[in-house]
Structure formats: structure tokens, C-alpha cells
Amino acid sequence: MKIIFTGGGTGGHFYPIIAIAQAVHKISKENKLLEPDMYFFAPSPYNPGLLYDNDINYRKTTSGKIRRYFSFLNIIDFFKMGWGAVSTLFDVFDVYPDVVFGKGGYGSFPTLLAARILRIPVVIHESDSVPGRVNKWAGKFAARVALSWLEAAKYFPEAVKRGRVVHTGQPIRDVILEPATNGAHRFFELEESVPTIVIRGGSSGAEMINNVIMDALPQLVENYQVIHQTGQNNFKVVKETADAILLNNRHRERYKPFAYFNQLEEQMSAGAATLVISRAGSTIFEIAAWGKPSIIIPITDSNGDHQLNNALSYAGSGAASVIEEANLTSHVFFGEIKRIIDDQVLRSKMAEKAKAFFKPEADRAVAKELLAIALSHEELG
After folding, report:
1. Domain 2-170+360-380 belongs to what architecture?
2. By CB distance 3.0 to 4.6 Å, which of 53, 271, 297, 331 could disulfide with 184?
3. Does 66 score more than 70 pLDDT?
4. Any idea which of 68-82, 184-198, 306-320, 341-355 has the lowest mean pLDDT?
5. How are the residues of the chain apportioned to helix, strand and coil, as percentages rounded to the nearest 5?
6. What's the CA gap between 256 and 378, in Å, rounded?
7. What residues are paired with 100 via a beta bridge?
8. pLDDT band at 76 (very low <50, low <70, confident <90, very high)
9. Cα 44 to the center of its chain, rounded Å
10. What is the CB neighbour count within 10 angstroms for residue 244?
11. Which CATH architecture best describes the domain 175-357?
12. Where are the alpha helices (DSSP H) in 96-173?
């Protein structure tokens, strides 16, 4: 039995694939099935160590990106897409899997196209309330369309009509699900009696959020402790700016900047958090799994306004509040933090709603679909 995974070049695509692959391993062992051969087809391996740890073979693919605005890069990428489609077709034929799983993103297009041409069953998963173009296209022929947001079903009318859509929730790795509460404050050298704000900007960071934090930093550390994930490209500038702002501040040790959270830091930050501030991508589901109140700041110009839709949908559950970028000033930012942290009843309600929003075992639900289709395809083959 063989399974190919494919996705774009972000953690939002990669880490759910790892979660599903881990669930495939577990289910195979539980049911005494032969361990499937698993492959990751993508323009980059993203995290080679995790691929190796989970027995996933990497195959490099070539893919272009068609932008929604005029750019000469579109011409170059058009030819890259053509070459990528042809070369990936041969690579997929060489493996000839029983099923292909697509997580979305332009990087998944060549592999999904090859699966379509070779009549290999496809399963896709969409993490956003408004799907990207590749998943919209793949949903027309996919054997299963798994969704994190039920609202996304309306974008897959043919799959809905044929009963191929399933609301699984977001696959999340087991190690991320449970906050590490024991020793979390000691890990960051923080005081347990002072509320802690965790700010997550993603691997590339969020420059606008970083700037607002710097503006509000003296007020923030006067009242709270801040664990700030700045993004790798922004870390040096943010740290130097924060050092200058807090040079003579008696609470300067309350601010803890990180370029990017590793696995342990992520678990510990979740355990220490009183309030989480985040963009509106798939991290929403991790915050929900932790049962933490949050402030969500969606990107204004995301594809199909999916971040705003994600944020409003999550806030509608009562688990979070939303600040749109147009309203993002240091005064509004600090005021919303204070409103939530000062109200214990509100925080408890938001935490309860977050836990209720989260759908557990999404990784197992998708893995079961993959194995069922793969076994059926293997028998027919």
C-alpha cells in the first residue's frame, strides 16, 4: 500500500500532513495492517527531520504560482508549471500510489494533476472557510473532501451533491494538543502571578502586529508578561527595537521575543498563556484545542478574504474577539487585551467556547478515509 501526500510550502500545509501520517501509522498498527509506504511530493521538504522521523520519503516537484495581479513572474511560472506537471507525472507513475492526499496550495497542483491523469483516487483537506484555487479545482474530482470549517462546503457543490464532503475539523499533531502547564512559567523565567500574553505571528511573522506591539510595549510590560513570536525575518529588528524601548524599564524582563517556536516552546507557551493573539490561519484550531481565550487579527488581503471569514466564524462561537487591521492601533490593541484579561468571567466563557469549537481526532478521521480508499484501490488493482 502506498500513499502520496502533497501540499504547498507552508506550515499550515505541512504539519497537518504530519499529523495524518502519524495517525495512519497508529491505525495500521491497531488493525495489524502492513505499514504503508508514504511519500511527500512538494517543491521543498519544509522539515526534513519530521519527514524522516515519520518514515515519509520526499520527492521534489516543480511548480509555478499564478498571481492575481500582473507580474512578469507569471510568465516564468507558467512554464515552470508546465515542466512541473510533466516531470511530476513521471514521478507519480513511478510510485503509482493507491491514494493521493492533497492539502492545498500551488505546490500541490502538479501531483494532483498527475493523480487525475493516472486515475488515482484523491482525498483533499481544506483548512480555511474559503478554499484556495487548487483545492476548489481538485474538489470536482476528489473521492473525499475533508473540511476544517463546515462553511467551506458551499464551495464544493458537486462533492456535496455526491455525498463526498466530510467535516473533520483540523488535523493537529498530538504533541501540540496538550499545553505543557507544569513548569511553563519557570521555562520562560516568568512570574506565575502576572497574566501572560502569547503572540503568534507565524513562521514569517506579522510586521504590522509587531509594530503595534512595539508601540504598546511599555504599557504591556507594566501590566502583563509577553511571549512574542516575531517571525524569523523580523526577529533582529524587533529585539533591537524592544531593547531600546525597555532600556530603563524595571519590567523589561517581562518581554520574551522568539524568532519561531520550536515544539517545546510552543507547548510551554500554550501552558503559560492567559490570552493568545494570532493571525486567522490554521493556528485558530490549535488555540481552540488548548482552550485559551484569544484575539484574532486577520490579514486584510488574504485569498478570498478567507482569514477574515475564519476570524469572524471563530469569534461567532464566542471563543475569541477580532481586531481588523484597519482598526489596529496600539490604543485599541491594549484596550482589547485589558478588557479580556480583567474580566475573569469572560475569559472562562471564551475558554469553554474554544474547547467546544474544537473537533478532536481530525487526523484519525482523515487517515481512516485514506486507508479505506487505499485498501479498496489495492484490492481492485
Report:
1. 3-Layer(aba) Sandwich (3.40)
2. 271
3. no
4. 68-82
5. 50, 15, 35
6. 52
7. 4, 122
8. low
9. 17
10. 9
11. 3-Layer(aba) Sandwich (3.40)
12. 109-117, 133-138, 157-161
The two counts, helices (H) then strands (E), for the chain are 16, 13
Give 340-362 as a 3 state SS string. HHCCHHHHHHHHHHHHHHCCCCH
Task: Return the ∠ at Cα 80 (arms to 79 and 82), rounded to 5°.
Answer: 65
Which part of the chain is CATH 3.40.50.2000? Answer: 2-170+360-380, 175-357
pLDDT at 327 over 60: yes
pLDDT at residue 268 in the model: 96
Strands 165-167 and 144-147: parallel
Q: Where are the beta strands (DSSP E) in 43-98?
A: 56-60
User: For residues 370 and 3, is the Cβ–Cβ distance under 8 A?
Assistant: yes
Instruction: Report d(CA 287, CA 39) in Å as an integer.
Output: 29
Distances from the Cα of 201 to the Cα of 206, 208, 323, 330, angstroms:
5, 10, 14, 17
C-alpha distances out from residue 82 to 104, 205, 229, Å? 18, 32, 38
- In the chain, the amino acid numbered 175 is V
For the stretch 123-137, pLDDT in tens is 999 999 999 999 999
**Percent over 70 (pLDDT), the chain:** 93
Quick one: which of 123, 126, 128 has its CA closest to 112? 123
